[in-house]
């Protein structure tokens, strides 16, 4: 491995200090890699990295000013149609989110709410005239939009929202109303201080009949910033993080807007006051509308991934310069990263960060691919939505856990705000529960799998899940597993080898992951089918841990296959050698974490289980010499880390060192 | 289990709303239970629960004012000798810490630094004259002391501190000096704004000869609050939490203090300028001094435990009133706590919180017991220090993980500062790395075990560990395991039962835990012995994960045995029945988490592993009806939870509910 640190000469992107780091970044940066490089080089960093010691008021003001920078950089328009001044590139808009997330998450989330969620709703749920009227002022910053979905009473259960949007045939207006205290919209980003207009989710009532959840645009504030008549705006106040985002509450008291304010692409009210929709079923229409959330979830995945990679970049760099305790032979103090326990904390996490990154790249590409299809492919779309939900859950869990590990790996220094980890941790925290609570999203993944994406997956409740599995046919589950020729080839090759050779064999890893997925899914399906017709809560509830496991095993397989494909696509031998080791480290770490399952299901012997642990330790040792290159390859420039301890005089941290 | 909710009539402590909750609290509150009750009833709650939305400046001012309340309540004196106005009750001082921690952690940590660490150093490392001169002004608040151990260059490795304390025979003074940038003291609680005097750790040099680390008292500020000549005070600024604690840096430029300022109980300078000590070995003296840290570590364990129990109390109460998604039969929305996945998140954690609480109670009692011995018992003292280190590591890890689970279990509401979870999480975070980094502490536990507490365990470096294991004799390890007759009896009884009966059998749980500990320790000892004489870094480092595993398995066993003893001491049948289930849930959850190990070491069959998971699910269902009682039993009064969502109008959270 000593050859690794030299590397093949390449044209360096500006910020990488090592050729190998640059090559790793290129190999795993996805199809938008050059876009990211260009953005990194162009964005004014000073305006984008926040001091996390700011008060809430200061942070909000800072975010407001920095959002202007994002708008000026043209990032507010990328996801919108060309006709409205955009690039019509949803994939690119996810990448903008990722790059901004490497700088500051308050800024990123505020932008995501205004342009991604509000703007996305106008774009995806509105008609051409909505896009023409409402997108240009949004892109220029004349409008500040917010996305008013969640209520105190209902968050995950969007179908049960209580806000009403009632058509008044007398005036041909829509009356937006919060009938109960629990109908108050809450946690609405940008509502507390800035938003001038809201995309409000509520139950559409036309001619006395309910048509389920629809979205209407409601102006919130007048030119002076005061709430318009009938609108009551509250402030959620201080939060556990994202202090720059002004989350607030909205209550509507019979607020009237013209009928044209309804985003009516999938359902609306005609001039005669009749409800009209191309989609017959209320449920299908609802889930088609919710499907537009997919981009938001992909963005959260990219943002979490960026946050985790940033934290790992800080902690690994620190561990590669910080020393503690003498070597027994008196030859000086030991670098933290030379301790096995420290390698174990950080290096498998680095490998996982690579794995997630490749899976997210695929997701972004797929989003763009499906967007460009002339005709919507419903099954492919639902598969994308399922993967987005799953990867959002996986990557936010990973980010929360990993940033915390990084904070602790830096000791007391890690707790100081100026060193960049605690702010990151606090900001990323909420990603686990917003844009879909992780537990709910994993259930949704399982449902997608059980139905082979043939059913609308949106029914998140018990009834939907049990009913879906009852309708499911025998071998449908198999279809859900891999269809990559590369994977089939590797698995087949592994089956021909002797057990003693297979520990490093990619085919064995892939087989372990997919075999586990198939077993968990098949037994889940059988279990739910046995309860056929019995839609009782208890049936589903007793299997809930099995449901969640099925989702996780599926996503683990998806991630591994994405990583394997990315490695396969790399043709520089040295870079590929490092990627192969990272991929093995990711695969074996996952197998070790699930060692109990693999043994109790006779997929792995006791001897093999112990060998896996020993091999992980060996891999940590092999990768340790290129640790700096590994974190450079994660794509977060050193200058963006915002960590005082990494730029201070080294003599402060290490006796005798000089700057 | 339906009988559980009624409970045996008892005299209720003021705050419990259920007899069972009160009984559980009493059964697991330890020997200081009445002291806690009395404190809870007496302390002015309004002054002790902080608004976590405060700025750093506001939080520091609030903490300063609230610390006055603690002093007025007599809590500053409990750990000090009667002669100086104290209760001479170190156990009680840990309990004061625990109760304060249930209210606010900034307040608790500030008090712990000033009275526990600085005051503790004066008390334990000083002579009678130091106690007479320095404790009374501390107890009254005239002095504010700080504890200046950590430097930028060295935190865990205290022996390598660079600050020097040099005796000048000309003037009979001690010269305190920071020779390098890395010698600057940092993260020193109370240093930035308040401290008037510091207990400074540094290398004592007498007559040109070094005698290792000693502690000297150095006045920091004059009457106006300005730094004294030669003292440079810095401010660590904003942190990831504990904003009320003013951590700062201290640099000394040849600062002179009289010789009498040296805390010289274990080593000092006589009037002739000669170094004198009753302890011959520098190393032994150093570790005797460090042994005084034991109380601080027990306090951190009690504080983490309190924080985790508070978070669980919030999340369980919320889950027991929050509904989301309809029941399939249309009978209304489902309470979060009725979902298996939600039970799985919270109830095993509740069981673990009980387990830790009982183990910490034992530790506090043992501290007090050993303190009262007329003659120091060195082996018992080292065993206590080992357990304190281990339990500190376990309970801080558990607190960080659990508070985060609780935050996520409350969804968006959990992220709002006013609901009490994110502030708790931010404050408790640093517990994982202060008062001894958890990884370092676990190594120390392993070393104590390997040497049967016969060696000084303080050598935290490689050399010490390898050397100790080389000297270790064959069967010493066995001694480290249990010596409780109750445990022996239960294990023996289990061995006589058939495998099918044992899943709920306490003896089987105990045997699993102790067998695992013994195996891990024996194989570690053998591994290190094979490297006898070879003190190379690589030898130790390759075994570091094994070392940490040994420490954890030992502590797991210690915790289970403490819980089993507490259950055994409970003679109310209904309370005991619930405690038995909690204890089983704790034991099985631990076995499930380590299922990979147990199977790969042939301690558990595949069938049994699956049965364990099923049994955990059953136990969650059995305990769910008494969930409120369970969290009342955790001992944190509802009024202390500081969670807005628990006191708001229920109609806000649940459609149709009324307050």
TrEMBL record, chains A, B:
Subcellular location(s) per record: Peroxisome
Domain Acyl-CoA oxidase C-alpha1: 291-450
Domain Acyl-CoA oxidase/dehydrogenase middle positions: 146-255
Region of interest: Disordered: 1-20
Presence of keyword Flavoprotein: yes
The keyword Oxidoreductase is assigned to this record: yes
Protein name: acyl-CoA oxidase
Lineage: Bacteria, Bacillati, Actinomycetota, Actinomycetes, Micrococcales
